[in-house]
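Structure (tokenized):
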């Protein structure tokens, strides 16, 4: 094996490790509940598009506001991601994985809402490392009472782009 091939393989392994770490830290951060500008910059590009069960948003400020509002519906959460398939192509990457989410409702009922599905994520290499540029969580099943959305809660309009698809 020549030096260039060895460099290519080390780069591929390093990219996969960095992406895996970013995705794991992201899911853990949802359970830690600190959603500020530093959180948003640590995981997302400025022009991120995020498709969530409570709506689709475009841009880091909109994502931050939407995540704060959505996560406030729960007292506690546990987000688990598994079976991630990572594909790297230069400075772009995709991740598709399964996700299981457990939520204790914040409405005082003690209700537990479970959801499971697939997360499709697009990432780009930036000067600060890998960042999420697009994501889509597609829920396959739920169990338990869903959170009651406030009357003034209007899900963000749906974006035209979907992670994992040309668009």
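Design, position by position:
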């Amino acid at each position: 094996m020549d030096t260039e091939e060895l460099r290519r393989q080390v780069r591929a392994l390093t990219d996969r490790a960095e992406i895996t770490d970013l995705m794991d830290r992201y899911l853990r951060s949802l359970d830690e509940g600190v959603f500020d500008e530093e959180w948003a910059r640590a995981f997302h590009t400025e022009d991120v598009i995020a498709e969530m069960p409570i709506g689709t948003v475009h841009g880091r400020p909109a994502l931050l506001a939407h995540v704060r509002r959505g996560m406030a519906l729960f007292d506690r959460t546990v987000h688990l991601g598994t079976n991630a398939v990572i594909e790297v192509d230069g400075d772009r990457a995709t991740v598709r994985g399964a996700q299981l989410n457990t939520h204790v409702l914040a409405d005082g009922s003690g209700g537990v809402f479970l959801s499971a599905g697939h997360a499709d994520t697009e990432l780009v290499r930036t000067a600060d490392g890998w960042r999420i540029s697009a994501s889509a969580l597609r829920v396959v099943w739920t169990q338990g009472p869903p959170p009651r959305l406030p009357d003034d809660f209007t899900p963000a309009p749906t974006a035209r782009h979907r992670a994992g698809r040309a668009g």
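Reviewer-requested clarification: The first strand starts at residue 44 and ends at 52. The beta strands are 44-52, 55-58, 74-89, 92-105, 112-126, 129-143.
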